[in-house]
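**User:**
Make up any protein.

**Assistant:**
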Amino acid sequence: MHILGGRCDEPGCTFTTGNGALGLKGLSEHRSHRHIGRICFWPTADGGRCDFTAGSDEEFCEHFKTAHLDRAEETAPNKKNWQCPWPGCPKGFKTKQSAERHARQSQRTAWLDYQQKKREEEQKKQG
Protein backbone atom coordinates (compact mmCIF):
# COMPACT_ATOMS: atom_id res chain seq x y z
CA MET A 1 0.00 0.00 0.00
CA HIS A 2 1.51 3.25 -1.13
CA ILE A 3 0.45 6.89 -0.96
CA LEU A 4 -0.52 8.08 -4.43
CA GLY A 5 -0.90 11.84 -4.83
CA GLY A 6 -3.12 12.47 -1.81
CA ARG A 7 -5.58 9.71 -2.70
CA CYS A 8 -6.17 6.64 -0.56
CA ASP A 9 -5.13 3.52 -2.47
CA GLU A 10 -7.29 1.09 -0.50
CA PRO A 11 -9.63 -0.71 -2.93
CA GLY A 12 -13.01 1.01 -3.15
CA CYS A 13 -12.01 4.04 -1.05
CA THR A 14 -12.63 7.50 -2.53
CA PHE A 15 -10.87 9.58 0.15
CA THR A 16 -8.58 12.32 -1.18
CA THR A 17 -6.64 15.07 0.52
CA GLY A 18 -4.61 18.15 -0.42
CA ASN A 19 -1.00 18.11 -1.52
CA GLY A 20 2.07 18.62 0.64
CA ALA A 21 3.01 17.48 4.11
CA LEU A 22 -0.38 18.34 5.65
CA GLY A 23 -2.17 16.39 2.95
CA LEU A 24 0.01 13.34 3.53
CA LYS A 25 -0.57 13.59 7.29
CA GLY A 26 -4.32 13.72 6.66
CA LEU A 27 -4.09 10.67 4.43
CA SER A 28 -2.05 8.82 7.03
CA GLU A 29 -4.62 9.68 9.72
CA HIS A 30 -7.44 8.55 7.42
CA ARG A 31 -5.80 5.21 6.73
CA SER A 32 -4.96 4.51 10.36
CA HIS A 33 -8.52 5.43 11.39
CA ARG A 34 -10.60 3.81 8.62
CA HIS A 35 -8.50 0.95 7.23
CA ILE A 36 -7.60 -1.01 10.35
CA GLY A 37 -8.55 -4.48 9.18
CA ARG A 38 -11.47 -6.82 8.66
CA ILE A 39 -10.60 -9.34 11.41
CA CYS A 40 -10.56 -8.12 15.01
CA PHE A 41 -7.32 -8.90 16.85
CA TRP A 42 -8.49 -7.42 20.17
CA PRO A 43 -6.86 -9.58 22.89
CA THR A 44 -9.29 -11.51 25.09
CA ALA A 45 -8.89 -12.48 28.74
CA ASP A 46 -8.30 -16.15 27.82
CA GLY A 47 -5.29 -15.28 25.63
CA GLY A 48 -7.17 -15.46 22.35
CA ARG A 49 -8.56 -12.69 20.23
CA CYS A 50 -12.00 -11.30 19.43
CA ASP A 51 -11.95 -12.69 15.84
CA PHE A 52 -14.99 -10.68 14.69
CA THR A 53 -14.85 -10.66 10.88
CA ALA A 54 -16.41 -7.82 8.90
CA GLY A 55 -17.41 -7.52 5.27
CA SER A 56 -16.42 -3.86 4.97
CA ASP A 57 -14.22 -1.23 6.59
CA GLU A 58 -17.32 0.60 7.80
CA GLU A 59 -18.75 -2.51 9.46
CA PHE A 60 -15.41 -3.25 11.11
CA CYS A 61 -14.94 0.31 12.40
CA GLU A 62 -18.42 0.25 13.93
CA HIS A 63 -17.66 -3.05 15.68
CA PHE A 64 -14.28 -1.80 16.92
CA LYS A 65 -15.78 1.38 18.31
CA THR A 66 -18.83 -0.11 20.02
CA ALA A 67 -17.28 -3.37 21.24
CA HIS A 68 -13.88 -2.07 22.28
CA LEU A 69 -13.15 1.67 22.08
CA ASP A 70 -16.16 2.74 24.10
CA ARG A 71 -14.40 1.06 27.03
CA ALA A 72 -11.70 3.75 27.18
CA GLU A 73 -11.80 5.21 30.64
CA GLU A 74 -10.37 8.27 32.26
CA THR A 75 -7.75 6.94 34.67
CA ALA A 76 -6.90 10.18 36.45
CA PRO A 77 -9.70 12.77 36.05
CA ASN A 78 -7.61 15.55 37.59
CA LYS A 79 -4.81 15.11 35.05
CA LYS A 80 -7.04 14.10 32.13
CA ASN A 81 -4.97 10.96 31.68
CA TRP A 82 -6.73 8.46 29.42
CA GLN A 83 -5.57 4.84 29.39
CA CYS A 84 -5.23 3.14 26.00
CA PRO A 85 -8.13 0.64 25.93
CA TRP A 86 -6.05 -2.04 24.12
CA PRO A 87 -5.65 -4.85 26.70
CA GLY A 88 -2.21 -4.87 28.27
CA CYS A 89 -1.18 -1.49 26.88
CA PRO A 90 0.27 0.68 29.67
CA LYS A 91 0.22 3.96 27.73
CA GLY A 92 -1.75 6.96 28.92
CA PHE A 93 -2.82 9.98 26.86
CA LYS A 94 -4.12 13.49 27.49
CA THR A 95 -7.28 12.91 25.44
CA LYS A 96 -9.67 10.04 24.87
CA GLN A 97 -9.23 10.49 21.11
CA SER A 98 -5.47 9.96 21.43
CA ALA A 99 -5.99 6.80 23.51
CA GLU A 100 -8.45 5.48 20.92
CA ARG A 101 -6.08 6.36 18.06
CA HIS A 102 -3.36 4.33 19.77
CA ALA A 103 -5.68 1.31 20.11
CA ARG A 104 -6.61 1.58 16.41
CA GLN A 105 -2.89 1.64 15.55
CA SER A 106 -2.40 -1.55 17.59
CA GLN A 107 -5.24 -3.20 15.64
CA ARG A 108 -3.86 -1.99 12.29
CA THR A 109 -0.39 -3.31 13.14
CA ALA A 110 -1.84 -6.72 14.07
CA TRP A 111 -3.89 -6.74 10.83
CA LEU A 112 -0.87 -5.87 8.65
CA ASP A 113 1.26 -8.52 10.41
CA TYR A 114 -1.49 -11.08 9.77
CA GLN A 115 -1.66 -10.16 6.07
CA GLN A 116 2.13 -10.40 5.75
CA LYS A 117 2.17 -13.87 7.35
CA LYS A 118 -0.61 -14.98 5.00
CA ARG A 119 1.38 -13.79 1.96
CA GLU A 120 4.50 -15.59 3.20
CA GLU A 121 2.56 -18.83 3.69
CA GLU A 122 1.10 -18.55 0.18
CA GLN A 123 4.58 -17.98 -1.28
CA LYS A 124 5.90 -21.09 0.52
CA LYS A 125 3.05 -23.16 -0.92
CA GLN A 126 3.74 -21.89 -4.43
CA GLY A 127 7.54 -21.96 -4.18
Summary: Residues 45 and 112 are 23 Å apart (CA to CA). The radius of gyration is 16 Å. The mean pLDDT is 80. The chain is about 45% helix and 5% strand.
